[in-house]
Each structure stands twice: as C-alpha cells, then as structure tokens.
Amino acid sequence: MKKPFAITLDPGSSLANHTGSWRTVRPVYVDRLPPCNDACPSGENIQGWLFHAESGDYEKAWRLLTEANPLPACMGRVCYHPCETACNRAQLDECVGVNAIERFIGDEALKHGWKFTPPAKSTGMRVLVVGAGPSGLSAAYQLARVGHTVTIREAGPLAGGMMRFGIPKYRLPREVLDAEIARIVTLGVSIELNSKVDDVLAAKREGHFDAVFLAVGAHIAKRAYLPAGSAGRMLDAVEVLRSMEGEERPLLGRRVVVYGGGNTALDVARTARRLGAEESVIVYRRTREKMPAHDAELEEALQEGVLVKWLSTIREAGESSITVEKMMLDEKGMAQPTGEFETLAADSVVLALGQDVDLSLLEGVPGLEIDGGVVKVDANMMTGHPGIFAGGDMVPGERTVTVGIGHGKLAARNIDAWLRGETWTHPPRPELASFDKLNTWYYSDAPKAQRPVLDMVRRQSTFEEVVGGFDPATAQFEARRCLSCGNCFECDNCYGVCPDNAVIKLGAGNRYAFNYDYCKGCGLCVSECPCGAIRTQPEEI
Amino acid sequence: MSYQPIRFYQTGTFTVGNRLLPEAQRSVQSGRERTNSLNSGHRACQGCGEALGARYAIDAAMAATNRQLVAANATGCLEVFSTPYPETSWQIPWIHSLFGNAAAVGTGIAAALRVQGKRDVRVVAQGGDGGTTDIGFGCLSGMFERNDDVLYICYDNEAYMNTGVQRSSATPPAARTNTTMPVGESTGARFGQGKNLPLIAMAHEIPYVATATVAELRDLEAKVRRAMEFRGARYIHVLVPCPLGWGHGSAETIKMARLAQETALFPVFEAEHGEVTNVSKLRRQLPVEDYLKPQSRFAHLFKPPGHADLIARIQALADRNVQRFGLVDAAEDAQ
Amino acid sequence: MLKQVEGSAAVAEAIALCRPQVICAYPISPQTHIVEALGRRVDAGELAPCEFINVESEFAAMSVAIGASATGARAYTATASQGLLFMAEAVYNAAGLGLPIVMTVANRAIGAPINIWNDHTDALSQRDCGWLQLFAEDNQEALDLHIQAFRLAEELSLPVMVCMDGFILTHAYERVDMPTQAQVDSYLPPYEPRQVLDPADPVSIGAMVGPEAFMEVRYLAHAKQQQALELIPAWADEFRRVFGRPSGGLVHEYRTSDADVIVVALGSVLGTIKDTVDMMRDEGLKIGVLGITCFRPWPAAAVRNSLQQAKRVVVLEKSLAVGMGGIVGNNVSASFSGSPDRVHTVIAGLGGRSITRGSLRRVFEQALADSLEPLTFLDLDRALVDRVLERERVQRRSGPIAEGILKDLGVVAAKLG
Q: Rounded to two decimals, what is the model's pTM?
C-alpha cells in the first residue's frame, strides 16, 4: 500500500516511544510474609501449600507442607492453629480453615501412601535424639532428610510422646499417629523404644554420636497440697491419660472432679464422660476468659456435658466429696479467696495442674544450665554444652505440639549447620503482608466451611473421633478461600490493569515481569493487586 | 448478569484472570494472546482510564470477531495520545476523521463492508463523552435510528479532558471543571443538566445498550461479546476515570470506577431493544461521600463549612438509580 | 444514446454507470432530484451492489462517505449551499485523508438571506479545501464530468467536486448523449484504493501531525493538485477517445484568437456569454470566451496562455468575496505576471438573478471601449442600494439589510398596512 505521508501510519509503531522515561516510581514484585506463616510455630509455608491445594495438587501441597512438619494428619487434628487467628481473611468474613485443610492433606497422604523423598546421600554424621515426641520426631525427620543418621531413644513403650499419652483418641486416632510415625521410620530414622537415656553424655559417647537433640518432654505431673482426710481417689491427669493407652482403664467413678484449667483438664474431663462418669466437673479458680485452655475445646467439652465450677479452688478432698472455696478476681485479675465454702460430691479427684520435666539425664553435663525446671538454650537451640541441643516442652516456651515440631525443625537446622562447622542464621523475614496491603474487593464472599462433628450420644460414650474431615470438594473450596496474602497467585490483575501493557505474563507458574521500557509508574498494578505482592519504590536517577 | 459469577473461587469473578479457571472461562485480558489493540508507547497520562478501557473493549471485540474488526475514532484524548505522527499505538485497522462524526464514519465503513460482502468484518466506532454526548450526538442518533451495524463505544470520563477539562453534557452535578468552577455562588456543574446517553440510546430501541466500568473487566468483556452477537446499532457506555480531570491518584483509576458503581452513581446494566434485561447488583452500597471525597473535582463540597445539602442531592441521585434500576435486592441474595 | 432528460436524471444515470458502492443522501434543493433518482435505482436493484443511506445531515453524509471510501468503497454524495457549509469540516477532512469521494454540488446561493437559487458562492467557499472542483457548462458536460471525476479522484486519491448550476442545469431538460455501461467500464476501472481499512493489513488512518511534518503534508497536497493539472487534460483526451466527444479538461477557449477582450466564466452562464459573443463577433467585434472547467487546481498556465494576447479580460462570476470583490477574478489576476489592471470583474447572477444577453453586451462593450470599472455588479439596482446606504449613514442601526430593502420596495410597509 502506498500510504499517504504522515497521515497513515503502520500498526503498533508506538513501540518506538519508550514511555518508561516518564516514571518517577517503579513497581516491583515482592513476596511478603503472610500472617499465617508468620504465626505458625512450626514455620509452615501455609500460603504456599494452600496455593497447591487450591488447584487440587494435594501431593505437591503435602510435599511443601512437610518441609516444615512431617505430621500433617496429626497436626490437622490437634494444632491450635494460631495461623487461623492471624489470618487476614478473618477481617473480611471468617478465617481460612487452615487446620482442616492440613488434616485433609495429611489424610490424603496416608490414603495414597505418599513417602518422603530420601536424602541423596548420607553425610556419615550420627545424631542422637532423646524422646520420640513431636519435637524429637520433627528433629529426627529433618536431620534424616539432609542425610544424617538419626537414632531416637524413647523411654516409653510407644513413640508419639504427649500426642499419644496426653491427647485422647477422640481427638487424635492412634492409627493416624502410628502411620505418620511409621513414615518417618521409613525415611530411615531408627526408634529404640523402652530405651531410657539416663546419662546423655555417656549415651552420646557410647553410640558414637556427633550431636544430641534432647526432647524428653514434660511428663511429671505437678502436685498441689490438698488436705485429704480419708483420701478417696486422688489421681493426676498425666497418669489418667497415659493409662488410657494401656489395657487397664482408670477407675474414676460416677462423679469426677478435675482440678485445673488447661487443655489437659478438659481432656481428662471429656475422657471421664466417655468412661461413664455421670458428672464430670472441672474446678477452676478463675473465669472462662482467664482459662488457659482453648475455647474451642472448652466449647466441645461443655457440649458433651462437662461442667465447670468457675472461680473455685479445692480446699479439702474427702471420702466422697470435696470442699471448694469460692474465689473472686482482684483488680489485677488474680483469684483471691472469699471465705465462702461449698461441698461437691466426688468419687475421684484428678489433678491437672501442669507438668514438670524429668531432668535426671542431664546431671553432670558441663556447661548445661537449668532454669526454672527447664533447660536453657540459645537462639540456635543449643544448650550450654556444645553439640547438645534441646527443644519441646523441656525448654522455655509454649507447650504445644506445634511449638515442639517447630523446635525440632529449628534444632535440626542448627545441628546440621553445627555438624558442618557452621552457624545457621534465620533467613531475613520479609515484610508482613498485613491486611492493609490487600485489595480485598477482589475476593468473592465465601463463608468458612465447617467440619462435620460426631453426634452427641457417641461423643459421650465412645472414643470415636469427634471432629471429622473435609470431603474433597469442601477441602478445595476452603483452600480457595485463601487470600494468598503477600504472594502472587497469578490472578493476572497486574497484567490486565496496566494501561500501558507494561506487564509481561511469563506463563503458568512463572508469574510476571515488568517491562520498564513502557511502565509509566502509575501504580495501578500496585493498588489493584489483590494480595499485596507489588510494591512501589522511588526510581533511581 | 451477562456472565456467570464464578462462585466459591478465591477471586474468580473479579480479578482479570484466575489460574484455576478453565481456559474457556478466562477473560480476554488474562490471555497472552490478547491483541493489545492499543499497544505500549501511547502517550496517555499515567493511570489513564480511557487507555485501559479502550484496550479492554477493543481486545474483547477482537476476540469476539476473530480479529475481523475495523474501528473509527472520534477526536479526543484517545485519538491524540494513540496516533501522534510518526507513531500509532493501534494494531487494528483504525481511522480518525473528526470530533463529531465517528458514528457516521462507522456507518460508512459498515456500508462499504456490506457492499463488499465482508459480513465477518465488524465495525466499532468510539469516542469520549464530548464526542459522543455532545458534538457527535447527531451522527450517533442517526446511526442508532438507521440501526446501522456498528458498535459504538463511549469512553466516558465526564468532561472534555483533551482540551483541558471543560464541562460536557456528561459532567455530573457539582463537579468542578474549568468551565464550571466553584467560585462565587457557583458550586460546580449545575444540578438538573446533563444527558443520560444510555437511556437515550435505549429510546432508539436499538438491539443492545450496556453500561460498564473499567473496574469490572469480565462484565465489560461479556458485554462487548454480547454486543457482537447482534447485528445493527449497539451502544456500550464505559465509565473511565481520568486522574487529571477528576483529581485522583493515578493508581486510583479503577478504584474510582468501582466506587462510582458501588455508590450507585453509575448504574451498570444491559438493555435489549429498549428494555433493561440485566442489572449489576451492588455488592455493598456505599455512601456517595466515599466516591466524592477522594476526587479534587468535588473537593469544594467538603471544604468548611461544607455542602451537606449538595451531597444529599447527589446521594438522592444515587438512591434514585438504586430504585430505578433495582441495584439492591430487597432480600439478601444467596449469591 | 441520445436522451431528452432532466439534468439531474442525466447525472444520476451517469453516476449509476460509474457503479458507486455507497451513496449518502441528505435532501437539499436543488440537488434532491439526483439522489432521489439514485435511490430509486438502488431500491429497484438496478444499481447493485450499492448501499443507499439516508443520513441525518450533510455532515453525516460526508462522514459516511469518508468511512466508506476509507474501507475501499466508491463513495458518492451530493449537496448544495448550506449543506456544503454544514459539511465543510468533513469536506476538508476527506481531502486531508486523500479519499477519492465524488460529490455533486448543485450550486446555490448561501444565506442569510436564505435563497434557493443559483450562484457559485457555495462551491467557491470551499475552494481551498483540497478538493478538485470541476464546473459543468451544460448537462452533457455535467454527466461527462462525473464519469471523469471518479477516474480523476481514484487515480489521484483526492476527492472531486462536480459543480453544476442549481435549477439552471439540474432541473433543465436537455438532450444528452448517455454513454453505455461498456464505455464507462472501459474508461473507469474498479476502485483500487491507495489505503484501506482491512483487518488483513491494518493501518492507522488520520494521525495527528504536528509542526514537524504539517507543512510537508500541506505541500504534498498542493503538489498533487499541480500534478493533476497535467493529468486532467490527458484524461480528457482519453475520454474523447472512448466516448467520441470532447469534454472536461482545464479550460475551453471559444473564439479567442485575435480577441481584444476575453470573457472568463464558469458554468452554465457560458452559454449565454457565447451567444452574446457570437452576436458581437457577427458585428466584427473582437471578443472571445474562456470557460474554466477546472477551478481547482487552478489552471494558471492555461489561463495565462489563453489570455496572453487579450487587451482586456472580463471575469464574469456568480460569486462575491464580500469586502473584497471577485473570487474568480482574483484567481485570474494572479495568473498574470504583470498588469493586473486589464482584468475586470463583473459580479453577476447572485441568488439566481437573471443574466441577460443585453446586460452582458453592455458590459462587454464597455470593456471594448475601455470604460469598464474594475469591479461591476451586473444589473444592480443602484438607486435602491443608494437609498439604503443613505439611510444607514443617518441612522447607524437601521436593521437588517434585507428588511431595509423590502421596506424600500414597500413590501413590508404594505403588509404592515
């Protein structure tokens, strides 16, 4: 075509005009830290594995999840999910049901028999892990993955620690626990049961171990002085829950009083109901708001008919009754006696006042410090004795399974580095993807999916699992409620909203790149990114 | 809705794309194969709503017609920033003739194609609100009335922006422009003036009329696609905020369009043969202040002592839209 | 084939033979009969394929033609007077875009005061718009020029205006020789656009051109019209070969050899002038005629050549550049390198005022006698205008001129009683 000069132009010739020179600020893609990941004591990349779950690739999700936590089927049942508390979606409608999805993924893994990827080669290093609870299992798993030879020595007859001897079956079915432990064993971790370590240095020396991770837990029940006249049945919670794992069921009687306000107290009270107690009463000295137990568990206990005597302390335990004193909270929130007394019928009293650590194996270890009944560790989880690390309930911190798993992972990283003569440092934490970074308009309204719950009759008479799992459709729906805070989930918004076509779509899984030749720096991509994965920064001159 | 909202997907309905959607349900803009009808290197201001709206609409039209499209463009920002000699940003056959004749040029193109037997090549005419509601109105009405086979797209930024922000018949009441300055007794553009072109288009009983905004891409694309299913005159009125003329940040263009819709000041609907057939319900109706406050063209309404009376009148206009178009369901929809 | 038909019908038939593909019609007298006739042919299926579009204004008519032409269709429209002014913006635009649209202008005066009768002020108002402007002397030339116009337009990629006097030609029944379809087809090949809106080969037509290239764009438009000056006679020659009669070209000389006075004019008035000149020649007076067929581009060389030996040139024109004088006269003057004072302008026939042989003879004789004023208004009622002017000198705000004249004629006064 003989085109008229200047009036008629060839298509797309404006590409010669690099409008990027107009820019004073430039957008850059970032990965911010999602609040769920930030809150997870195990350091799971929750947003990351949800991303795979959203597309139904549960194996990929499971592989990413288990980089931090080898026990998702267990944790999907017993974790108190601080991730959900932190979830940004809670400010929109309701938090994402991370815990339930984790359980679904964990169960899928067991159903399909997915195995951990064995290490490429052995390092030749030997690590002794003392205790087969969540922390010990976690550390052993992490160490084995990087090629260390790991032996767990467990004092008890079965692995699992408090997951087995502290958490009732109706919350964590034992076949699930067994299967997840077995998978760690399959990876190459050897577990020696009924093998109590009495002297850690001797055990290290005799077993030619290069490092030790201590995770013996806290299994000794705290006692309280109770004047017990002709003392009826007085038991401790650890003992009751532990005996549930044996042949002999504990005899608690028709009317059971549980003393304490933690999750263990609830577990015992709920166990008592299932064992046939007509009355299962928790006596707690403060109020519901002050109770350390998780509210969800309290709610389930109350549904099952557990009673709670708030603002009460036991003054005396008799043959078939106890005397409680009413308390009141002072202005500091501390419980103070009132001098008012009451008598309650009780066939047995179970004390659930917390647990102490058995530290006998640490006697004579040079440099190792003990403070307040727990072992002091540095930021790298190492005790004062080089090469001996510790975690879980035996070190300071919150005593939950999730924290234990996190300790195990963190200790393993440090042990691995220490074995190589290095010091592990935590990678820099990205900026938090707080709610204000999101453009929530883009998220469809979607209520949180609820897990099925066992019917009440069976909850009061059997040890069947109370809370059910998601079906696949529900799991996927719930996963897709994730806002993907701070991390690109390839929604194409930046690619779409750029008036200058200055965003290059790199294809599935590869995200996007900016074409700074044309980007004018308007910032539309930043404000329209639903998940806050783009930031503007001043243009360098 | 002309498209099915994708339920229970993370963001399926609202974002440009979604990796979880089947290919067929994805937006044109999410595709790497989109035309980029209006290519990089154009000279629109940062965050230009019109540049965005034009690419959204024309890419959608290209997809709907299997790339058999010709466009006529009125004089205005879109024309000036896209085709300054020696460079054009258009990747489609495109002609600019005059300010007020885009619809008629479109008619001519359609007539030529018909006589050439090129039934598969479709015609779009486009312009800003000035070129549509004012100077181009005669040609547009003629095109409508003859039911010529042209899709006319108006990119409405509510004033003459190219000439430096003067009032058009699409300028909303109380808005400050350089010809409706809130000085002396004046409070910006007058109430009781202005044209509602979508309703006027409907009065021509043409096959298809729709409104849309740059804030809801999938809706806009669905409407362009729907428009291309008809033969005859069709009209789509797209709200395209203008950072320069409205006085908001360049990053807030889409947000402003969204607020215009969610405050009910800009009802989003479809009509066929003169009857409203679909209405985009408000997700959450917002007070008009939410929309007015971030824009400096309405800043005088909020300067002490304020103009609560005028804001109330604007709210009344929004409420009338809610009533008139049924923008809010009486009972909570299960949607 | 010889036919006795109305001028509009003859032109319509010739246009139909040119196979236009898009015709835009908006009614304005005196062009209506042309588009009516074309519309009937399209509706009857005699002219096919062709889209006949009843538009809502002349502005739309030209705009639709622009769209159609840019899409590769042979586009035609017709207008007159106010209509031409109403489409003026698009008229310029079509030329600027280089679109070979053909338009008939049935010449008519421009108001106010509104007047439907013939003069040339409409077409001449658009003399700088970039179109070629051809003026027909009679209906035969009108239909011939339309055939040539399509060929010219498409060869040059420029729009062409064929001007024919309203009523005098459009509504006059004359004998014409109507060519056959085969003849037209052999002269006018199918339209091959220089640029076209085509999805297979997209371009952007109508760019904004700034100071860096605008002069060049304008110069090229001028240069192209200059090229047309060479091509127009060539195509007129070819026309003569195909159709067997001379038609078109730049200028027509009539009895100019040895003429002391040459009268220059456009359009149908040339017939009356030639009759007058014949009479005067019979009496031995040395007078001739130069008819301008192509007003744009202005054939300066041809005009200069034709007028070289004349002692006096009388430009008789149906147009007035108010405040200045003659438009054609000015163009003629500019064609000489020296002595512009031998060019006399006679403004005649405005608003359809009859131009009689007697009146013409009077001014021609004055020219021969060297007593003609540089600017003359033929048959002006001098007494009347003097009275109005006198009154206005006394009373500055004397109301509209038209009303003043009517008042003087006693019409308004009579009505007011």
A: 0.91
Q: Where are the CATH 3.50.50.60 domain residues in chain A?
A: 126-219+357-419, 225-355
* Across C237-264, average pLDDT: 96
Q: Which of B41, B90, B253 sits opposite A518 (nearest CB)?
A: B41
Quick check: B59 and B66 in contact, CB under 8 A? no
B75 Cβ under 8 Å from any chain A Cβ: no
State the Cα angle at A298 between A295 and A300, rounded to 5°: 110
Where do the domains of chain B lie? 23-325
**Residue A246: partners with Cβ closer than 8 Å, 6 or more residues away:** none
CA distance C183 to A63: 84
Domain coordinates in residue numbering, chain C: 2-243, 251-377, 382-416
> Any idea how long chain A is?
541
Chain B nearest CA to C220, separation (Å): 16
Residue in the structure block whose two tokens are 């003393």: A259
Strand order in the sheet with A233-236: A233-236, A348-351, A255-259, A279-283, A307-309
Is there a contact between C207 and A11 if contact means CB atoms under 8 Å apart? no
- Specify the DSSP class assigned to residue A466: S
Architecture field, domain A35-114+438-479 = Orthogonal Bundle (1.10)
Chain A residues in contact with B43 (beta carbon < 8 A): 17, 19
Do the domains spanning C2-243 and C251-377 agree at the CATH topology level? Answer: yes
Q: List, as ranges, residues 110-149 from B with C-beta within 8 Å of C.
A: 110-117, 121, 138-139, 141-142, 145-146, 148
Domain spanning A13-31+488-538: CATH 3.40.50.1100: no
> B250: which chain A residues are within 8 Å (Cβ-Cβ)?
522-524
A225-355: CATH homologous superfamily? FAD/NAD(P)-binding domain (3.50.50.60)
Calpha distance A391→A371 (Å, rounded): 14
Look up the ipTM and state it. Answer: 0.94
Please give the class, per CATH, of domain B23-325. alpha beta
Mean pLDDT of chain C, nearest integer: 94
Q: What is the pLDDT along chain A (541 residues), one digit of tens a residue?
A: 478 898 999 998 999 999 999 999 999 999 999 999 999 999 999 999 999 999 899 999 999 999 999 999 999 999 999 999 999 999 998 999 999 999 999 999 999 999 999 999 999 999 999 999 999 999 999 999 999 999 999 999 999 999 999 899 999 999 999 999 999 999 999 999 999 999 999 999 999 999 999 999 998 888 877 776 555 688 889 889 988 888 788 888 899 999 999 999 999 999 999 998 999 999 999 999 989 999 888 999 999 999 999 999 998 888 888 899 999 988 888 889 999 999 998 999 999 998 999 998 998 899 999 998 899 999 999 999 999 999 999 999 889 999 999 999 999 999 999 999 999 999 999 999 999 999 999 888 887 888 888 888 888 888 899 998 999 988 988 999 999 999 999 999 999 999 999 999 999 889 999 999 999 999 999 999 999 999 999 998 7
Cis peptide before B86 (omega within 30 of 0): yes
Q: Judged by CB atoms within 8 Å, which residues 168-227 of C form the interface with A?
A: 194-196, 201-207, 209, 213-214, 216-217, 220
In CATH, the number for domain C2-243 is 3.40.50.970
Does the beta carbon of C95 lie under 8 angstroms from any beta carbon of chain B? no
Interface contact C338, partner B, CB < 8 A:
no
Count of CB pairs separated by less than 8 Å, B with C: 168
Query: Which chain A residue has its CA at the smallest distance from B7's CA?
Result: A444
A228, B2, B4, C209 from B223: Cα distances, Å: 81, 7, 12, 34
Q: What is the CATH number of domain C251-377?
A: 3.40.50.920
3-state SS string for A223-274 = CCCCCECCCCEEEEHHHHHHHCCCCCCCCCCCEEEEECCCHHHHHHHHHHHH
Closest partner residue to C67 (CB to CB) among B69, B91, B107 is B107
